[in-house]
Write a structure and sequence with these properties.
The structure holds two protein chains of two kinds. By secondary structure, chain A is an all-alpha fold. Chain A contains eleven helices and no strands. In chain A, helix 2 crosses helix 8. The longest helix of chain A is centred in the first third of the chain and has 34 residues. In chain B, strands 1, 2, 3, 4, 7, 8, 9 and 10 form an eight-stranded mixed beta sheet that branches. The chains are: A mainly alpha, B alpha/beta. At the A-B interface, helix 2, helix 10 and helix 11 of A face helix 1, helix 3, strand 2 and helix 9 of B.
Chain lengths: 232, 294
Amino acid sequence: MNTIIEGAVKALELLTDGDCDVFQVMTMTLFVSGTATAISVLLGLPLGMWLALVDFAGKQTLNSLINFGMGLPPVVIGLVVSVFLWRSGPLGNLDLIYTPTAMIVAQAIIAFPIVAGFSFTAIISINPKLRWRLLSMGATQWQVNWLLIKEARLGLMAAVIAGFGRVISEVGASMMVGGNIKGQTRVLTTAIVTEVGKGNYDVAMAIAYILLIITYTVIVLLTILQHDRKIL
Amino acid sequence: MINNRTVRDACLVSFLAILCIGFGSNLIKQEPTIGQSPAKKDVIVAMTTSIEDSGLLDDLVPAIEKKTGYKLKKVAVGTGQALALAEKGEVDALFVNSPKAERKVLAGGAVINRHLVMHNDFVIVGPDTDKANIRGKKNAVEAFSLIAKNQALFVSRGDDSGTNKLEKDLWKQANVTPSGTWYQQTGSGMAETLQVANQKLGYTLADRATYIFQKKNLSLPILVQGDKKLLNLYHVMEVNSQKFPRVNSAGAKAFINYVLSPEGQTLIAAHGKKEFKQALFYGDAGKTEKDYGF
């Protein structure tokens, strides 16, 4: 029980001391997970929309694959990405294993199905008549898409929130492809594992607090975006 | 069409984007500059978790990087995994502690240039009640026999690390095939395994360094120590670039030379003395396994 309180004190210390290491790990976490989420949104949102608006053969299969992807264990994705990025792997020449880029790739793959799946649900739940009405009023396809995105923004922001929440809290894949290298690929989750390994439960708890604060801050910002009023 | 909400949303989105991009550029600055290909500059060292957890390389790495100009990527995995990575040419150098397994990989030609760097020792720890009655025994194999005979809970790392390999070896010498409810494998590092043994009041085999800095979280005393069989030797070696052309051989050599140099050996011997009032590792440059009767 003491650890919980000690951790809070330690977290304040770490944050107020301007501890370089902690700051570096924080920025790395935000950079990796933020970039990965952005990539997954750029790819997943159009895919979700396309699935919701266009009928084609095999749509059901693709849909079920995306739903399956939403439940894919991150650690499996980490393993597969590692195998590809190892020197002996097909992408070994890129020298990406144990770099932040490798972590971004793995995390983007983890978040992508979630963003696509949530986007699909958000768009499909808009009244279908809206689209036809817009088209009949002479709107271009791009204008229609943009208006649909605006209409479905509650659901779409939920997609972003879910994707970000999943990758920032992920540890297995980050450990495997990033290697948890101090000053290079250490993020808050893997730093917690490291500190536990060193027996510093108070520091581990402090980093846990910092992780929660950061996650909460970002989620609140996204929630403000999602709704018209502040929700705290 | 532009209303307050759109403006505010745009601001928030930009803010988040700036956060990410700002942090990103901040980090990318630390990447090697153009003109130095990272393949030449980066040295990947796979090592055992006990070295990582002890923080030894936190002392060594900055010194090595400053001296040699290489960028070290140290990956903490169990010795078993480190050797497996070396056999595939995925890493450049190793810093591990399972002499028997290392010799096998050496014979296979995947690694070369193997040197003894330092040693400490293993200890058998367990609950104060000591159901198996092993306290103070001088013989590790006898202690293991007693634990098995009494079916006292033994928590094994079960992760194919150096510690785990030695443990399996000791069971073999005790003519015991550990199985049943009294033998539990965590599949994780030394620190987690010690904590599991601590919570479940079981016996375990631990390297002394990890035990020392975990001690504040443990209620398990050392029960057996000092047997020559419990010596823990750490070797460095480079992965054979003849076999795997992508290996950064020069970088691996620079790393090995540094840990064997007087400067590196001094850092190793001094490590942990301030914090724990005792050395965690003892330098062995210039010695070989034979000096310890292996």
